[in-house]
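batch_manifest entry 22 of 60
target: MFS transporter
source organism: Streptomyces cinnamoneus
requested by: lab member K.T.
priority: normal
notes from requester: please return tokens only, no post-processing; we will run our own comparison against the previous entry in this batch. if the run fails, retry once and flag.
--- input ---
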Amino acid sequence: MPQSAQQEMSYSQALRNPRLAFFLCGVGFSSIGDGMLIATIPLVALKVHGSMPAAFAVSLAAAASYVSSTCLAIPFSLGRLRLPVKVSLVMDCLLRGITLAALGLTAAGGSLGIGTLIGALLVGSCLRSLAASGTRLAAVGLVPGHGRYAVNGLLATVKEFALYVAGPALGGAVAALFSPEWALVIDGATFLPLLVATLLAIPREPPVSNDPKKAESGLSVLRRLPITWRLLVIVFFYNLFYMPVEVALPLFIDGPLDGSSRALGMVWTLFGAGAILGALGTNYLRSVPQRPLLIGIIAGWGGSMVGLASSQSVLSASIAFFVAGVIYAPFTPVAYSYLYTFLSEKEEQPVITLWSTVSTLAAPLGLVAAGPLVYAVGGRSSIFLSAFITLALSLIAVRILGSQPGPVLQRPDGQT
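--- output ---
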């Protein structure tokens, strides 16, 4: 392994690249739109569900974009098909932007039914997973190798703020002042800045090869590099065991802590504030060896969940969840940066696409499993169980990730 590697870029150094800064602005606007959907899609589904039970309408509408995008991403991640990053981003911006704006206008005119809403979200969001991996690939492609850690951290900072703070707040405000239908129209418009940024900031790529003799699937790369699939296993189960917390928290606040919907909002707001702080703090962790840092984040999250489950008041729960947000935020950028150290440039697209697809699967699977769990054992016990399993996962990670020592490793193509 090389001993003389360039020092990792800081956030400020990476942002001196005008293309990257411009592209991140576009990502921020579209992520605000994604955050708005968290608040608006359930509200629109409740208004147009008709004879369908409200709970089914909300769950099907919320899951539609994950289902179609995951199904489409599978052949690109497991097979040898390639879609240029810039093409996937442009197509997703156009498809989602037009679909969401059209749904909002149709709903505002009183002509939207629940079947049309679900069907349109299925079709309009089919490129979402490919675009999510494409966003990361496009951003890191704008900087040299020693800037990738900073880019992953910046992406986390932008998305944490947009998804959990600005987006839901704006969506809720528009829905309250006007109607959720107009929030969908605004959401569709948020893809225009990302479209412009992609067209102007992301350079044109050379044609991709779909020749089986020249292209290698993400699955075959993972088989050839065992550390990459072991790391994926850790990431998948970390995301999976988080899901019971999301389901249990409202019951925990409303039940044992005798809180209200306003109290739940405060708890989530503090989590978002902690996540932003943690994402910004990721900048100062770039010299820390990434393997022990990743394991420490997993253990820290488990410990913070023990603190949350032990809370006896809304205030103590809010403080515990704020700390959890600080710990949670660096996980994704550190995990992806660690992964990049093992991949050559030609291996990045299929592997990152596979990672995004599998990571996305953890959310619906975890939510489905969390329902019966929370019903059976209650909110507090579910959070405790999630915490203890996550702590066990950190011990498993020590074992299966081996002893790779630091953030700068020899890449398969001989670069650092």
